[in-house]
């Protein structure tokens, strides 16, 4: 919007741990950061322009900076995987209920399945979760 530049986002989600970084990834990193200060200046000026005429001429800028500080103070915590109950956003029971496929809990409603099928479903889901975390999560 401010720079008349469309970045090539192919490398946005790449594995940046690899070394040496390929030339294409280095070029992406350079181009992606090249305009940041210029964009910041434009956004700051736009907020100041919109605040003109109000009692506090920096009200919108102050609000944006306060929200930014709040966001940057958030600490990521990995949601634990609950194998026994299957609860949580990515739990096996939560997904089964979401898709209305089967009732996996003991007192659940729906089609219901036997104890063996329930354990197989849980085991496959746990395997998938474990492999996904090993393959996709950063080493940090």
Protein described:
The chain has helices spanning 23-34, 36-51, 59-73, 92-98, 115-136. With 140 residues, it is mainly alpha-helical. It is flat. It starts with 22 loop residues before the first helix and ends with a helix.
Protein traits:
140 residues; mainly alpha; flat
What portion of residues is helical? 40-55%
What is the radius of gyration computed over CA atoms, rounded to a whole number of angstroms? 24 Å
Strand fraction equals under 5%
* Largest β-sheet summary: none
Overall 3D shape: flat
Summed over residues and divided by their number, the pLDDT gives a mean of 83
Supply the number of helical segments: 5
Helix/sheet category: mainly alpha
Distance between the termini: 34 Å
Count of beta strands: 0
Instruction: Enumerate the spans where pLDDT stays under 50 for 5 or more consecutive residues.
Output: none
Order of helices and strands: HHHHH
